[in-house]
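tool=predict chain=A
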Amino acid sequence: MSECVPKSQEVSLHKLAELFRRSLVIAVKHSDPPTPKTTTTKASSMKPKGKQLKVKAEPPPKKRKKWKEEFSSSQSDSSPEVHSSSNDEEFDPPAPFVTRFLNTRAMKETFKSYMELLVSIALDPDTMQALEKSNDELLLPHMKKIDSMLNDNRKRLLLNLHLDQSFKNALERFPELTIITRDSKAKSGGSAVSKIKMNGKAYNKKTLRTSKTTIKSAQEFAVDPEKIQLYSLYHSLHHYKYHVYLICKDEISSVQKKNEDLGQEEIVQLCMKNVKWVEDLFEKFGELLNHVQQKCS
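tool=predict ok
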């Protein structure tokens, strides 16, 4: 059959076959799948998104301290064992209730007003009566507060003392108290003998002025040595205002010596400017109440 085909047609058939073969090669190349591109962006976008934590805003300065205290308290509540084990060696016992109460700002202001009124009474005994007539609400409430605290503690002591009426009357009448302890004679084989001697002038409980009525010069009572401190505390509580009143008179004399021709109000202000003097008396007041609490607990 090939012998019957002309040469020109044979050449064209070869060309067509060659073109067909090339087209097949090109088609095969284009049919290969493209190599996938690996990008970190697509890979990360396919991962499940985790829940984002909201960052708590920084509190304003006034609330920052409160937030920190709440956070520290919640931490200690959630892990008490860790907190206690780490601070066992640094643990301080809590202060007595009376101490914590007296350390408040309100209590310090109350005592300061109490002292201011006592200085005024020391300068003018009629001050108390004038304030009561005018229903004063600036100083009188503070004095009543301190008086109430002293009276409440005095009643607590009475429950532990069971005082004889004559002895109780003497404790409340005489502003001065002396403890006398002496050994009995060795031949009798006795132990120490304790007595309480009371003397001093009577005074008016409201004006704090010395009373004109005369009382016995002194009285002595034999007492139980183990209760001497209780008797002394009771006496100190009952006569506290009078004793501080005498201290105020001494401070007034000291101020008047340094500053002559001063009015009553100016003297009161100068006395109250002696901050250390007021703070020392406040500290002793707290110690007195703490001693009562310890004895009655």
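The beta strands are 176-183, 192-199, 218-222. DSSP finds 13 helices and three strands in the chain.
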